[in-house]
């Protein structure tokens, strides 16, 4: 029973890792049309993960309560290996999500800066219709 729950949780995490890796690659090539479908799929996987994790937790608690020995003695080597895989998958997903967030923040900052330059939103005037003269080069000037 534990093996089934561990396999399910690990499969869901591997799908999340795969989707996040794909999202990172899509951001790098500015392929933004897949964002909404990816977010929907991730939300479904997160819901499935939460449910599977609750079932795994309950199975582990039941197994622990049914024996006077600790979990480390009750679980076989395959279960321990799958728990290690779960830990590694969680760490990998954390790292991928951190990388993904960095790219999202970079794109957001770039687009916010571009909008501020184009429409001068920081001081309340609309640069597109105002008296200021701008050159197209100034829209794409990046300060690093």
Tell me the number of strands: 0
What Rg, in angstroms, do the CA atoms define? 24 Å
Uncertain residue segments: none
Q: Give the biggest sheet.
A: none
Distance between the ends: 55 Å
Q: Helix and strand succession?
A: HHHHH
Number of domains: 1
Structural class category: mainly alpha
Portion in strands:
under 5%
Instruction: Work out the helix count.
Output: 5
**Shape label:** elongated
- Mean pLDDT across every amino acid position: 84
Secondary structure: helix percent? over 70%
SSE map:
Blueprint: H1 2-28, H2 35-65, H3 71-74, H4 77-119, H5 136-139
In short:
Pfam families: FlgN. By secondary structure, the protein is mainly alpha-helical. 76% of the residues lie in helices and 0% in strands.
């Amino acid at each position: 029973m534990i093996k089934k729950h561990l396999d399910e949780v690990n499969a869901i995490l591997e799908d999340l890792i795969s989707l996040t890796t794909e999202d990172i690659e899509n951001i790098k090539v500015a392929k933004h049309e897949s964002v909404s479908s990816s977010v929907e799929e991730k939300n479904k996987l997160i819901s499935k993960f939460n449910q599977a994790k609750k079932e795994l937790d309950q199975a582990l608690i039941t197994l622990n309560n049914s024996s006077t020995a600790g979990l480390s003695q009750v679980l076989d080597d395959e279960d321990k290996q799958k728990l290690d895989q779960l830990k590694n998958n969680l760490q990998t997903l954390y790292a991928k999500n951190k990388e993904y967030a960095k790219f999202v923040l970079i794109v957001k900052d770039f687009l916010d800066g571009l909008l501020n330059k184009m429409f001068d939103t920081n001081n309340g005037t609309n640069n597109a219709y105002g008296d200021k003269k701008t050159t197209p080069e100034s829209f794409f000037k990046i300060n690093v």
